[in-house]
Design goal:
The chain is an alpha/beta fold and about 850 residues long. It contains 34 helices and 24 strands. A nine-stranded mixed β-sheet has the order 7-10-11-4-1-12-13-17-18, sandwiched between helices. Strands 21-20-19-22-23-24 form a six-stranded parallel β-sheet, sandwiched between helices. A three-stranded antiparallel β-sheet has the order 14-16-15. Strand 8 (about 205-210) and strand 9 (about 215) form a beta hairpin. Helix 21 (about 495-505) runs antiparallel to helix 22. It binds ligand GL2. Ligand GL2 binds near residues 338 and 676. Belongs to the glycogen phosphorylase family.
């Protein structure tokens, strides 16, 4: 509980800067110093919020020291560096991670005690940095942690959105969205770099010089200003940067004359345009304006980052003070996190040719040796296609370059592979269909990148055999797999200290935090009753904490002695939260029909579902509403509610995940096979000893192999069966399971209120048609899902067996460390080496 003793700045403890204090008393003095001399609030108050900012600033002092040493070390050694370009980073909170990675957690906890506060409470004051929306953004953040921990010279580049992902509020209407102003009060972790500012142009035209060289001129020029966030590695000095660009217009762009003439908006037009660029992550793109803005954001990231990268390269000339452009790919690796930063390709070409004077062949050689591309989805709607008309308007020079890339690519295919003539249309970058002429960003990436990778074995196989099959026949060596991973620091060591201590105790080492493969040594103890009881106690403690949280945010009281069953992720039809809800509805109906005696023989469950639906995704929002409606009935039904509860966890984000995952016993990863590229929360749950019910999709396949097929509740169609099953449905050959029909009928009967769920349920029915025909095969998989749930209920009754499976889940999760993933990227794609900052 929050202490009140700290409500004022301590007069007993001095305020002294001691930037790198080791002793808790000195740290306390340093925190006091920041409370007084870096104030953000009126003086003398020292409530948890003030204490958070002062503590964060104190920690930042240490980070800055390491950070500067890292910069100067990289500058001196001049190694090849990786630049990770991503439109999303889902960083979450930073304080626990920072004191943990710096190994000063205990000292800070002590210091705060002296000041009348508990570190646990102070960290809760921090707002999540939610500059991402789901797995792709969180993956980028895990990667940053691993890059620093592995001492790799690497940078993250992104945008400094003012409003990150929206805050979700649950009302009678379902989900409502509020802007999340994470910077409202100031972020203690970012440092503005007024010496890293670059002009980024939009619109304008191409000027052709008499020599034939071309130059992009005119249009609108916005300044990109760097805001750096330190990324400390775990117990190492290396502290890398996440560089986020902010858009600004200059004083020159402010028309004082117009302003004084009373035309305030016109006077600051460019300022307001600049503000739009970093205003929100994924602005709605239903309108032309929205599309244009998204494209501007993407280009803004690419242009600013590449100017910065090129600037750094040019700074480090050879002995003769000459820039050796041919060396560029041996100093720079650029990784495109999905297609959002594809414009880095034509932008690098433009900068090299038009600004640096290189010829096409030289520029192309450099670009293709520098850039690599990760694909994160096979969903057609997520494969970006930009209108050529919009692109010509916004980026005329880049369109010239893209046309040339495409022309040369087509010529190459025609001469080297005449057998592919009928495939050329699908392979080329520009789709010139006069109705909807577009640039296919994924194609541009595949044609230009030296390496293309998928994010789990199954996904990479699907890329090779389906989406990119014809490219594979041209460049078989270009395609790789890099199975995703998660950082064991945030996702076990820090979010689940109880379990971490047990693991360290039984392994007799804490080396597993940086060498997760060591977890496999837990296997030998899986049957040990002493470990089992410690394991169960740790799980229970996390469940109790979670129950408290759920009560606080939903008002629903849940029983830590029931099976905690969790599905948290973005709400999407392919992720099939609807399958989960229909299963819950069926379970509820059966419980109602049972005798009191029979009920007592069931396994009591608490089903928790959480996640945000994209604001304009109607069916996803209906699913959110349905979960809440089902919960409202089930949880207040006295006959049943000690055997089943259904809770919607509002506003799912990184911090909420850190609370849910340690307390989970079963988690659902139940996407239609072939549709979830990897999934990464499956890895987090398994690592924390949670069993998985899931399909053979994405990384589930590899998780099941690693932890043992007997420890995974498998069901459902396989990816290679899906196309046939869809065909069979279309031909009216599908006979739904009676349980499936019963569950739908129960919802239709109004058991959960009067909201019209027909449109949602109809999407699961019929043979075909828009929004019909059960594209995601919920009905087909329903019976095997229910059977798997019965196996779960049985297994949970045998606590020893369950706990053993739980231990084996953790023991088998070593492969899913993002340290492993990043080491593979470094060796096999980026060709970079570690560059540890010397300790002395
Ligand atoms: C995703 C995939 O859907 C998900 O399966 C994968 O784990 C992550 C990270 O590779 O990438 N692709 C995507 O666009 N989002 C994802 O989460 N948002």
């Amino acid at each position: 509980a929050a202490t009140t003793a700290g409500a004022k700045i301590s007069q007993k403890i001095p305020s002294v800067a001691y930037p790198l204090a080791e002793e808790p008393t000195e740290i306390a003095a340093n925190i006091n110093y920041h409370a007084q001399y870096s104030p953000h609030f009126s003086p003398f108050k020292f409530e948890p919020e003030q204490a958070f900012y002062a503590t964060a600033e104190s920690v930042r002092d240490r980070l800055i020291k390491q950070w500067n040493e890292t910069y100067s070390h990289y500058h001196k050694v001049n190694p090849k560096q990786t630049y990770y370009l991503s439109m999303e980073y889902l960083q979450g909170r930073a304080l626990t991670n920072a004191v943990g990675n710096l190994d000063v957690q205990d000292a800070y906890a002590d210091a705060l005690k002296q000041l009348g506060h508990e570190l646990e409470n102070i960290v809760e004051q921090e707002k999540d940095a939610a500059l991402g929306n789901g797995g792709l953004g969180r993956l980028a953040s895990c990667f940053l942690d691993s890059m620093a921990t592995l001492n790799l010279p690497a940078w993250g580049y992104g945008l400094r959105y003012k409003y990150g992902l929206f805050k979700q509020r649950i009302t009678k209407a379902g989900q409502e969205e509020d802007a999340d102003d994470w910077l409202e009060k100031f972020s203690p972790w970012e440092v503005v770099r007024h010496d890293a500012v670059y002009p980024v142009r939009f619109f304008g035209q191409v000027e052709v010089n008499p020599s034939g060289s071309r130059k992009w001129i005119g249009g609108e020029v916005i300044q990109a200003v760097a805001y750096d966030v330190p990324i400390p590695g775990y117990k190492t000095k290396n502290t890398n940067s996440l560089r986020l660009w902010e858009a600004k217009a200059g004083a020159d762009d402010f028309d004082l004359f117009q302003f004084n003439d009373g035309q305030y908006e016109a006077a600051a037009l460019l300022h307001s345009r600049a503000q739009q660029i970093c205003a929100v992550l994924y602005p709605g793109d239903a309108t032309e304006n929205g599309k244009l803005l998204r494209l501007k954001q993407q280009f803004f990231l690419c242009s600013a980052s590449l100017q910065d990268i090129i600037g750094r390269f040019k700074e480090r000339k050879d002995e003769k003070d000459e820039i050796q452009w041919s060396e560029f790919p041996s100093k720079v690796a650029v990784q495109l996190n999905d297609t959002h930063p594809t414009l880095a390709i034509p932008e690098l070409m433009r900068l090299l040719m038009d600004d640096e004077g290189l010829g096409w062949d030289e520029a192309w050689n450099i670009t293709t040796k520098t850039i690599a591309y990760t694909n994160h989805t096979v969903l057609p709607e997520a494969l970006e296609k930009w209108s050529q008309a919009v692109m010509w308007k916004l980026l005329p020079r880049h369109m010239e370059i893209i046309e040339e890339i495409d022309k040369r690519f087509i010529a190459m295919v025609r001469s080297a592979r005449p057998d592919l003539e009928d495939k050329v249309h699908g392979l080329c970058v520009l789709d010139n269909n006069p109705q909807k002429a577009v640039v296919r960003m994924a194609n541009l990436c595949v044609v230009s990148a030296h390496t293309v990778n998928g994010v789990a074995q199954l996904h990479s196989d699907i890329l090779k055999s389906e989406l990119f099959a014809d490219y594979v026949s041209i460049w078989p060596a270009k395609f790789q797999n890099k199975t995703n991973g998660i950082t064991p620091r945030r996702w076990l060591r820090f979010c689940n200290p109880e379990l971490s201590h047990i693991i360290t105790k039984w392994l007799k080492t804490d080396q597993w935090v940086t060498n997760l493969d060591l977890l496999v040594n837990l296997r030998q103890f899986a049957d040990n009753s002493e470990l089992q009881s410690e394991w169960e106690l740790a799980k229970l403690a996390s469940k109790q904490r979670l129950a408290k949280y759920i009560l606080q945010v939903t008002g629903v009281s849940i029983d830590p002695n029931t099976l905690f069953d969790i599905q948290v992720k973005r709400i999407h039809e392919y992720k099939r939260q609807l399958l989960n809800v229909l299963g819950a509805v069926y379970r509820y109906k059966k419980l109602k029909e049972m005798s009191t005696e029979d009920r007592k023989n069931t396994t009591p469950r608490t089903i928790m579902i959480g996640g945000k639906a994209f604001a304009t995704y109607t069916n996803a929002k209906r699913i959110v509403k349905l979960v809440n409606d089902v919960g409202a009935v089930v949880n207040t039904d006295p006959e049943v509610n000690s055997f089943l509860k259904v809770v919607f966890v509002p506003n799912y984000n990184v911090s909420v995940a850190e609370m849910l995952i340690p307390g989970s016993e079963l988690s659902q990863h139940i996407s239609t096979a072939g549709m979830e590229a990897s999934g990464t929360s499956n890895m987090k749950f398994a690592l924390n000893g949670c069993l998985i019910i899931g399909t053979l999709d994405g990384a589930n396949v590899e998780i099941r192999e690693e932890i043992g097929v007997d420890n995974f509740f498998l069901f459902g169609a396989t990816a290679d069966e899906v196309p046939r099953l869809r065909k069979e449905r279309e031909n009216g050959m599908f006979k739904p399971d009676p349980r499936f029909e019963e569950a739908k009928q129960f919802i239709r009967s109004g058991a959960f209120g009067s909201y019209d769920y027909n449109p949602l349920l109809e999407s699961l029915e019929g043979n075909s048609g828009y929004g019909r025909g059960d594209y995601f095969l919920v009905g087909y998989d329903f019976p095997s899902y229910m059977d798997a749930q019965e196996r779960v209920d049985e297994a949970y009754k045998d606590r020893k067996r369950w706990t053993k499976m739980s231990i084996l889940s953790t023991a088998g999760s070593g492969k899913f460390s993002s340290d492993r993933t990043i080491a593979q990227y470094a060796d096999e794609i980026w060709k970079i080496n570690e560059c540890p900052v010397p300790l002395a």
